[in-house]
Design a protein that fits this description.
alpha/beta, FAD/NAD(P)-binding domain, 3 domains, five-stranded parallel sheet, 25 strands
Length: 459
């Protein structure tokens, strides 16, 4: 009996985690595994690119978890610089393009994994393809940016977008000695936070010497005669630039899937069931940045591009494709970032998210410190908490601060997953010692204040 064939499209986190897990469950005599990757690298941390560009990570290869050779040593037929250009669902085959030779061929599959990731948002504006304008989605992108920084005729940088990538790249450029301006079309930086918490990020960025311009929609990139960027224009003004970094965000890369007639959701990502199978297709799975996931708090699907989810998806897909069993129940929307020493965290719903799904809520915001106030090095921390009106069910938490602020959001992420109320949270037995926390942890202080808000609103 011939071995069944698993084909994987995409050689990063979700795709190669799926291939590796399937191989653990089935040997080469039972399952042949072919993986296609159009780029030069596999199994790397895209999230680490800003820290490599900024010099915190010394070498590009430090971001690579497993090389193509290591995958091949595990009996995975990994074909690099090979792009899948078509999926024939009915014929159970994919068309592959060798990007080195230009040759094409068909490869059949019994089972298929789609892990095509996400693509940076790149508005169709004049000058967006000019020399000196960079996205930062892949290791190739990171290397191109570093090379551009070395060739830049001056030391002025403009970052378009003030989300996670935008603020992280602003820090990286600052470390290279650039004068950095961030153009943000929103009310405040970090639209993943409510504006009142985003204001804290704005103030901190100003304090670091980063100029942040809000409500600044980019209209075009201005170039010199040689085609290189010289400035970024908005309706309100023009900002000189020797290099431009796009940090506008990403969207699911589902071009292949759409063309094949596979189902996508309202955010453009592939729709899957709990086992990560593409809805309506028993032999096709999808995971990573190209899918939508269930938001356990809002009860709706959303698109979240994070390596943590992608690796989990891959493990589950590989288990199911390899004859095992696994499910991915959903997410609560936890994410952390930093700009220099300012830590930024959120989980659950923002105010506008709660309104969008018809939830009534109360909020509370507290100021505290990451350590006991008398302990050396104690730094301020702001915690904002949302809870459902009357029931007190926790809906979301946002944290901006220093000195270990970001990872405190994990307490809230667990509470959200467990469906806890803020009153239940006040009794959590959290670790305490003066070097690590005040006697009342900031999360507990916020929970207590939110309990009071719930009671007051219910009167």
């Amino acid at each position: 009996m011939a071995a069944e064939r698993l084909v994987v499209i995409g050689g990063d986190a979700a795709g190669m985690s799926a291939a590796s897990q399937a191989r653990r469950l089935k040997g080469p005599d039972e399952m042949g595994i072919v993986a296609f990757e159009r780029g030069h690298f596999t199994s790397y941390s895209a999230c680490g690119i800003p820290y490599w560009v900024g010099g915190d990570v010394e070498q590009r290869d430090d971001l690579i978890a497993r090389t193509p050779e290591e995958h091949r040593a595990r009996a995975i037929d990994l074909r690099m610089r090979t792009e899948v250009t078509e999926i024939d669902v009915a014929g159970q085959r994919v068309r592959a393009l060798d990007r080195e030779t230009g040759g094409t061929y068909w490869a059949g599959f019994d089972k298929l994994v789609i892990a095509t990731g996400a693509r940076p948002v790149r508005p169709a504006l004049p000058g967006m393809d000019a020399a000196g304008v960079h996205g930062v989605q892949t290791l190739d992108d990171g290397q191109a940016l570093l090379d551009s920084l070395d060739r830049a005729p001056g030391r002025r940088a403009v970052v378009v977008g003030a989300g996670y990538i935008g603020v992280e790249m602003a820090e990286a450029l600052l470390k290279h000695g650039f004068e950095v301006t961030v153009l943000n079309r929103g009310e405040q930086p970090m639209a993943t936070l409510d504006p009142d918490m985003g204001r804290l990020v704005h103030d901190a960025m100003d304090g670091l010497g980063i100029t942040t311009v809000n409500r600044a929609g980019v209209s075009k990139i201005i170039t010199a005669a040689d085609g290189r960027v010289t400035a970024v224009a908005t309706e309100e003004g023009t900002y000189p630039a020797d290099v431009v970094v796009l940090g506008i965000g990403v969207e699911p890369e589902t071009t292949l899937a759409r063309a094949a007639g596979l189902p996508v959701g309202p955010h453009g990502g592939l729709l899957t069931d709990l086992s990560m199978r593409v809805v309506g297709h028993d032999n096709i799975w999808a995971g990573g940045d190209c899918v939508e996931v269930l938001d356990l708090v809002a009860g709706r699907t959303r698109h979240i591009a994070l390596g943590t989810h992608a690796n989990k998806h891959g493990q589950i897909i590989g288990s199911n494709a390899g004859g095992g069993y696994g499910t991915f129940p959903g997410v609560v929307g936890t994410a952390v970032s930093k700009v220099c020493d300012l830590e930024i965290a959120r989980t659950g719903l923002r105010e506008k998210d709660a309104r969008a799904v018809g939830l009534r809520f109360v909020t509370a915001t507290i100021e505290s410190t990451g350590r006991a106030g008398y302990y050396p090095g104690a730094q301020p921390m702001t915690v904002k908490m949302l809870a459902e009106y009357r029931t007190g069910r926790l809906l979301g938490v946002q944290i901006v601060g220093r000195d270990g602020a970001a990872k405190r959001v994990d307490i809230a992420a667990v509470a959200l997953t467990a469906g806890m109320t803020v009153e239940q949270m006040t009794a959590l037995d959290l670790g305490y010692a003066p070097p690590f926390s005040p006697v009342w942890d900031p999360i507990l202080v916020a929970a207590r204040k939110t309990v009071q808000a719930v009671r007051a609103a219910g009167v």
